[in-house]
Amino acid sequence: MKIAIAGTGYVGLSLAVVLAQHHEVYALDIDAAKVEQINARRSPIHDPEISDYLATRELDLRATTDPEEAYAGAQWVVVATPTDYDTVTNFFDTRSVEAVVADVRRINPDAAIVIKSTIPVGYTEGLREQHPGATILFSPEFLREGRALHDNLHPSRIIVGDTTARGQEFADLLLEGSLHDDVPVLLTGSTEAEAIKLFANTYLAMRVAYFNELDTYAVTRQLDTRQIIEGVGLDPRIGSHYNNPSFGYGGYCLPKDTRQLLANYGTVPQTLITAVVDANTTRMDFIAADILDRHPHRVGIYRLIMKAGSDNFRASSVQGVMSRLQARGVEIVIYEPSFEGETFQGCRVLRDLPAFTDTADIIIANRLDEHSDEFGDKLYTRDLYGRD
């Protein structure tokens, strides 16, 4: 069976690898350099499992920049293009999804289209109305950046927003590519599937915000955050997972998904979703103020990435703290070995760790790693457990 994947980010490339274990897969991307890397069996993104599978496994996978080559003859087309949140419209920018659907309908109108990109609640239903007769499904992804293939090989659940045999067929494709045969599978309405995605990520953001605000209280009252978290987590209804304080939730998914869900509420009564969105701003305000109370002359930012094991800078919480410090006139220097430029948002970028350490008065790190001990008393972090 031929399957096309539009987009080779974490979602698209991990799915392409999973499906190419058993089927002929064409991965489409507008970036010729990424296409060349994939065809050379090198991963263009940081994901250890993707790198390993591309290098060592027999995969029927070809990347291309040509929509005709990708879509012609495909039975399934999976849309995994980015849908960034537009702060002007307060909705996801879904133009890339619509462009893919239009191309597929022109090139191969018989193909079934599965949207994996995150979209507003109710979007698929409207898209079906625009394309009468088209088979268009939505299937949410629940992947971590840097562990996307791992999460596709070991899925917590498979959800497809279609209760017909078509929905089951796509679910079976995902199940076939996983390493388990007992994965929970849920077929729902398309709008319910869209809501599941946004509510799941907003719950995760709420949990991050909760433990961050617990930490803010403890720091302000000179209490031991770790003791409080461990005592709270002993309640089996709460548990001791996903409880490590940070500078705030960040990355590609949680900030935009919480805002999209808030926008989808519209006139529906709520207070909690607004609080989850606002809590992240409050946390970064507190972290910046706590650093400023130390009267630094030059602050070092250790890594711009949104979490450990990622190469993504997008919407990382450390950048929110950095911008607040800059606004107060604090000089910033950054250590980020994966960034090729000399400056980032007007700040010097160093790739020599000893020089970076010597330059800064305070070094702030959202997450600890093997270099953290080298910073000594200069280190400022709220990471208690060395995990996300």
Widest β-sheet, arrangement of strands: 3-2-1-4-7-8
- Fraction of residues in helices? 40-55%
Which CATH C-level class of the largest domain is it? Answer: Alpha Beta
Assign an overall shape: globular
- Class by helix and strand content? alpha/beta
Question: Largest sheet, if any?
Answer: 6 strands, parallel
Supply the CATH architecture of the largest domain. Answer: 3-Layer(aba) Sandwich
Please, could you describe this protein's structure?
With 388 residues, this protein is of the alpha/beta class. It has 2 domains: 2-188, NAD(P)-binding Rossmann-like Domain (Rossmann fold, 3-Layer(aba) Sandwich); 247-380, Rossmann fold (3-Layer(aba) Sandwich), CATH 3.40.50.720. Helix content is 42%, strand content 14%. The protein is built from 14 helices and 16 strands. The chain has helices at residues 10-19, 32-39, 48-56, 67-71, 95-107, 123-130, 148-153, 165-177, 190-220, 225-233, 254-265, 272-292, 317-327, 353-359; strands spanning 2-6, 24-28, 61-64, 76-79, 85-86, 91-92, 112-115, 136-138, 158-160, 185-187, 298-302, 331-335, 343-344, 347-350, 362-364, 379-380. The chain has a 6-stranded parallel sheet, with helices on both faces. Strand 1 (2-6), helix 1 and strand 2 (24-28) form a beta-alpha-beta unit. Helix 12 (272-292) packs across helix 13. The longest helix has 31 residues, at 190-220. It is globular. The model has no long low-confidence stretch (mean pLDDT 94).
